[in-house]
Amino acid sequence: MTALLEIDRLSKSFGTLPVLKDVSLNVAAGEVVTVCGASGSGKSTLLRCINGLEPIDGGSIRFNGTEVPRSRSGLRELRRHVGMVFQSFNLFPHLTALQNISLGPRKILGRSTAEARDTALRLLERVGLADKADAFPDFLSGGQQQRVAIARALAMQPSLMLFDEPTSALDPEMVAEVLDVMRGLADQGMTMVVVSHEMNFAREVADRVAFMHAGAIVEAAAPGDFFRAPQSEEARRFVRTVLGQRMSIEGGVG
C-alpha cells in the first residue's frame, strides 16, 4: 500500500529535554494506527508535529508525497487535508453545533452558506446528533461536544484524521458514543492516527499498534501480535498493566 504519511527519524526537544528521538512511522492510505504508551512518552507531541503545531528539530514528515511545510501559508494548506481532534473539544461557545461545523467550510474552503449548512447537517446526522444542530456547546454533554468536534474536522474533507486522546476528558458512559463514531470512520476507510489508552478500540479497529516509550517508537505490530506477544520489556510491562486494569474493572469488587 502507498504511504499517505511518512515519518523518518523525527526528533523534537523542548529546551534541553528531548521528547521525540528518531521516530519513524509510515501510515498507508485507509490504515488505522493506534499510538499507545505511558504518559509522557511523546505521543501527543508526535501528533502536533504531524499537523505542524510544533516545529521539528530533525528528520522529516511527508504527507501525500510532499514534505510538511514550515511556512504559515503552507501549514494552512496542510490543515485543509489533515484534521485533528483534541482532548478538549475547543468548540466556539457562542456558536451552535451547526455553526461550529460550517464555519471552516465557509471561511477556508469558500463554500456558500447554504452548501456549508448542508454539509454540517449531513455530518451531524453522521455522528448521531441531527437533533442538536441549534444547540450551543454548553447545552451538550462532553460526548456530544466531542462528536461535534469530530464533525467539524470532517467538514474540511480531510484525507487524514489525527485523534489526540479524544475520550480522556469524558465520563466513562460517554466514551462509547465517541468510539462508535470513530469505528464508523474506520469502516468507511478514513486514514487515522489515534493516540489513545482505549485498548479495546486498538484491538478491534486498528490495523497496527505503535508503542512509544521515552520518545521513541519501540515497536509497531498488528494488534493481535502486539497484545499477545509484545517484543520489548517496556511493551510487555505496559500490556500487563493495561490488561490488569481491564480485568480489575470487569471483575468489579465483591
Describe this structure in words.
Helices cover 40% and strands 25% of the residues. It is α/β, with parallel strands linked by helices and 254 residues long. It has a six-stranded mixed sheet, with helices on both faces. A four-stranded antiparallel sheet has the order 2-1-4-5, with helices on one face. It is globular, with a radius of gyration of 18 Å. It starts with a strand and ends with a helix. Residues 247-254 have low confidence and may be disordered.
Could you provide a short overview of the structure?
Helix content is 40%, strand content 25%. It contains 9 helices and 10 strands. β4 and β5 form a beta hairpin.
Uncertain residue ranges = 247-254
Q: How far apart are the first and last residues' alpha carbons, in Å?
A: 50 Å
> Rg, please?
18 Å
Morphology: globular
Strand order of the largest sheet: 6-7-8-3-9-10
For the sheet with most strands, the description reads:
6 strands, mixed
Q: What is the succession of H and E elements?
A: EEEHEEHEHHHEHEHEEHH
Output the number of helix runs.
Answer: 9
The assembly state of the depicted protein chains is single chain
Helix content: 25-40%
Rounded mean pLDDT score: 91
Structural class, by secondary structure, is alpha/beta
Strand coverage percent: 15-25%
Strand tally is 10
